[in-house]
Amino acid sequence: MPPFLFWFFALMTLGFGAGVIINRSPIGSALSLVLSFIGLSTLFLSLNAYFISVIQVLVYAGAVMVLFLFIIMLLDLRAEERRKINVVAFAGGAAVALALFVQVYRIIGALGAARQAFPPLRSGNTDDVRRVGLLLFANYNLPFQIVGVLVLVATIGVIVLSKRELR
Amino acid sequence: MVTLGDYLLVSGLLFTIGFAGVMLRRNIIIIFMSLELMLNAANLSLVAFSRFRVQPDGLPNYHAQVFVFFIITVAAAEVAVGLAIIVALYRARRTTHVEDIATLKF
After folding, report:
1. What's CA A8's distance to the chain center, in Å?
2. Relative to the CA of A40, which of A2, A147, B36, B51 has its CA 20 to 30 Å away?
């Protein structure tokens, strides 16, 4: 991927990601999140991770965001009215987030490998769905089944939680 | 030339945006979306390392991509349960504002 396309999609991911926390209406935040995830899936594409890129769009932009929008509209949330901002808490939160980023930045700066370009692959079009699938069912079979149980438990839990009266 | 550090920088910035959202916003649904941003920032750095560690046979290291697959699955389950909890909370308290939910606050 040419560098300007990388920076374009990186800025798209980060810009709409910032839009999520800046927007006052929850619907606007959810739509920014969809665009941010689409930018992110393009970055996965540029890293030759085609399978991850596709399931990113399917699972996040498809399933998860529909769920978010569904809940926002179900609860009928309006843009939140301006409350008095607790200045100390706001400044403290911003300072902690900034300190986190400075730390991450310095660690990346100290990492020698971070200045190297990506080594070339044998060929650009890898059969990565097959390779990930083989690894998943051969090396990671037990974790895969445990995740299956987790999803089942989550499904039952959601049904129990959404019942009108809890017993 | 795009280096590994550029991808890690984007990942770190995305994580910081998500973290700032959790720290600064007071709407519980926005906090939940910020959690998703942080999970995806971790996914981006995992995939970047997967592409960086090219194996001797000229292919990326797919173990990291399997890990990302698990993260996406668990995140989807987490969203479903979390949103059900938010709906139950809204039914009980008629609010999604975290400052109105202070029963357990010290």
Report:
1. 18
2. A147
Nearest CA in chain A to B45: A44
CATH number, domain with residue B80 = 1.10.287.3510
A5-63 tens-digit pLDDT: 999 999 999 999 999 999 888 899 999 999 999 999 999 999 989 999 999 999 988 89
Asked whether the beta carbons of residue B24 and residue A51 sit closer than 8 angstroms, the reply is: no
State the sign of the Cα–Cα–Cα–Cα dihedral B60, A140, A37, B10. Answer: negative
Candidates B7, B26, B76; nearest CB to A59: B76
A132 chain-B contacts, CB cut-off 8 A: 62, 65-66, 69
Q: Is CATH 3.30.540.10 the right assignment for the domain spanning A3-124?
A: no
Q: Decide if B58 is inside a domain.
A: yes
Q: Which alpha helices (DSSP H) does A23-127 contain, by range?
A: 26-46, 50-55, 65-75, 87-110
How far apart are alpha carbons A33 and B102 in whole angstroms?
A: 28
ipTM for the whole complex: 0.91
Tell me if chain A has a CB within 8 Å of the CB of B79.
yes
| Count of domains forming chain B | 1
Closest CA to A64 of B83, B11, B66, B65: B83
Nearest CA in chain B to A19: B17
Angle (nearest 5°) at CA B34 between B67 and B84: 85
Longest dimension (CA), chain A: 59
Whole-angstrom distance, CA of residue A44 vs CA of residue A18: 20
CB A8 within 8 A of CB B8: no
Tell me the two tokens of residue B2: 């795009």
